[in-house]
Amino acid sequence: MKRIFIPFLLILAVGFFSISCDSDDDNTQQVSFDYEQYGETFTNMPSKEDAIIYQVNITSFSDEGTLNAVTANLQHIKNLGANVVYLMPIYPIGEVNSIGSPYSVKDYTSVNPNLGTLADLRTLVETAHSLDMAVILDWVANHTAWDHPWITEHPEYYQQDNEGNIISPPNTNYTDVAQLNYTMFNVREAMVDALAYWVYNTNIDGFRFDYADGMPFAFYSDGIAALRTIKNQEMLFLAEGDRTNHFDAGFDYIFGFNYYGALKTAFNSGNANGLQSSSETAYSSVAETDRIVRYTTNHDVNHTDGTPNALFGGQQGANAAFVLASYMRSVPFIYNGQEVGYNQQLTFFSPDPIDWSMADYDVYAEYQKILAFRQNSEALKTGTFTGYSNGSVVAFTMETTTETVLVMVNVANNNTTYTLPEGLSQTGWVDAYSGTDFTTDGTVALAPYQYIVVHN
Fold this sequence. Notes:
six-stranded antiparallel sheet; 19% strand; Alpha-amylase
């Protein structure tokens, strides 16, 4: 058993309510994690700068829709270049008011039997670790299913209306879930204990928090601090939110909602300037070392908006958008299927298997090339961003003291010519993908949706 002290301080989280506690001794609560650690320390954990995240929609990843089927195909993810496997919710799905969403959690400490067993998850994690890949779980902390045991055992854990009825998340249409009340210390304590359960019992390496902007700062700052003490290794925490104080709370990453919107606008309009402005605004109030996870698709937007091919002008445009989302002071993110150009939308409310016979492995090879250069470039991972976008060309450098990377992407479906800024045209550039010298007279011709990446 490991005993952790979590100080739920009396602070006011910006935009949220005041956090209080029940303890009389220096506002400190004692949380006991009554578990034994399963598995060995993962010694090849990627740093937060090195992470390349692959999201697995378990019921879409294979015909079987199981954890074992994911395990059997981890080499596909490894060969792509990813080193973090992000599993969508693995927990039993609520049946009351259900729409089939895995984000309606009936039990925080069980595996959905349709997906497999605890032993299956352990095998998946062990196999991923043997391939030098971390595993993070999707966590739904804001709300539970209506048939979660807390509904009847602890109705005080939930927000209620004036008549004492438990409510769904306010100002949403999430009628299949019930809103938790984070002013209650017992809710925070129970949630952190449930998170710890998976670290101890399956040896996973972190969490992606769904709807992260919905919970208060203190829950994260204290909870993440406690979770990081469990294993003698680094862990990764991703907030599906864009509050910049998530970094202060202990998260490694926030989510690029606005960047995704600006990316779509850039490719739809053929105008590059808005994307650069969006990126600079997002980073205006965070530390130089902070990074935002950016994407061209994920389970939400694939289901609602369409595939990258549909959104960005076909496969060439989808590849170009992925370069930007991976290189522009970003952490790369891949949703299963996009790496093989799968052009069918996927639901996550019911099984919807990818037809891998439709996979385009030329696209896969292109993704491998894009990700391999990112993984071997300190400038892309940790460098300083400078933007030079103009017209239809998104252009920028990522720079350290030893390397400069110049990225030029035509976001328009027509030919264009880009004039390099003074000081960049005479640099001894090398093509990032071919390794050949890249020479220019000061201008660069770009075909529709072409991307050119050079470095020195």
